[in-house]
Structures are given as structure tokens and as C-alpha cells.
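Supplementary Note 3. Input sequence used for the single-chain structure prediction.
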Amino acid sequence: MAALLEVRDLSVRFGGVVALDRVSFGVDAGQVVGLIGPNGAGKTTLFNVITRVYRPSTGTVLIDGRSVLSIRAHHVIRNGLARTFQNVALFRSMTVLDNVIVGDHTRTKSGWLQASVPLPGALAAESESRKRALEMLDFVGLVARADHPVAALPFGLQKRVELARALVSRPRLLLLDEPAGGISHEEVDAMARLLRRVHTDLGVTMLLVEHHMAFVMGISDHVVVLDFGRKIGEGTPAEVQRNPAVIEAYLGAA
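The predicted structure, written as C-alpha cells, is reproduced below.
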């Protein structure tokens, strides 16, 4: 396996606040890597650097050996990277299907002028995009709700819509920000099964932030632990669970 994502000596400062402090780790192609840590550890900040929302103070992030700092923020998805959010970021006035179609914009070959005029090329591109979106909704179990307004769906199903929107772009690396957050115990188990299918059936490498320990330990090949912006441990789930620094960060010193 080759490193798909490399985080190298990454630091982020907001004034006098150090959000990330010389963090380094890698994600190999084909892995599922969990990123854990107490609240305020810097996990979402790291995601925001990878997706070009924030620029690091020092260090870099590489995708396939290329620095993301050389990629425009709106071109990140074209480099095989997609993301979901802790609080779902959907277009609430649109249908489930239209929300997923939005995620397919990088694969639609017609330009804005063609799309604004009902020409054969634009109609064919729209039809193909709709087809891909429906296929992905079928994959996440929501094709029957394609024409429903997304705002009418319960939160757990909205998370599936957002996942479908991320997957329709066919990413190689998927960043998941708390996929089990805010959903019921039964939905957590169902989400774990779905993400395993994303990994095995679609071949997607995943980096996920999660506070639900049973969830992240059950799905991850490798786990990286942050605390107060620093990496305090990494390894297999079993190794991390035995790490004294990790135990102290979560439970406090004895």
C-alpha cells in the first residue's frame, strides 16, 4: 500500500491559541483510520486544513505526494477527496435527490452556458448525473425517498443523504466528521455496517473523527489520538486502548 494522505509536522495557531502542534501521521490507500481525542483536541481543525478551509501555520498535508496547499479549495474534490460534516450541511429546501446531484458537479461535463439552455448535450449530462445520484441513494438505502424534501427526514437519514452526496463524486479518500454523532444506538450499528460496505464494495479509503469509541474501534484499522492539539498516540485499536497516555487523556490521571 502507498500513502494516500500524509500529514507532516502540521501546526495551526489562531492568535495565541495552538489548535494543532506539530502533528504527523499517514493514511495508506485502502485503510480506515480513526482520529479520536477529547473535545478541543484539534480534530475538526485538522479536517479543515486537509480540505483547504484553513491554512496551516507550519507543516503541510500531502495527497498522493502533492501538497494540498497548491490546490485551490474548490478543486480539492477533483483530487479524489470528499467530506461529511458533524452537523449535516444539506440544502434543506431541496429534495433528497437534488442534494446528492449537487455532489456530482465535478463529473458533469456540460458548462454553465450549456446547462442553462436545454441542449441535447446538457440534457444528456443531467440525465447521467441523475442516474449516478439514484444509484448512490440505492446504495445507502434511500432511493425510495429520492423525491422527498430533505428537511422532512430524521437526522439519521439526513446523515445518509450527506454520505451519498460525498460518495457520488467517487472519492478515493472520504473524511467523515462524527458519522455516529446524534443518532440512536440502532442507527449507529447500521451506520457501521454501511461504512464497512463503503470501504469493501466501493474501495474508499476513510479517515473518520468520532467520539463513539465502540464505533470507531470496531471499524478502524488504525487509530490516531490527539489531545490539546498534539498527537499522543497511534496504532491498532487494541494498542491505542492500552496506551497510558490515551487512558489519561480520556479518564484523567489516577
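The chain is about 35% helix and 25% strand. The CA atoms of residues 83 and 175 lie 5 Å apart.
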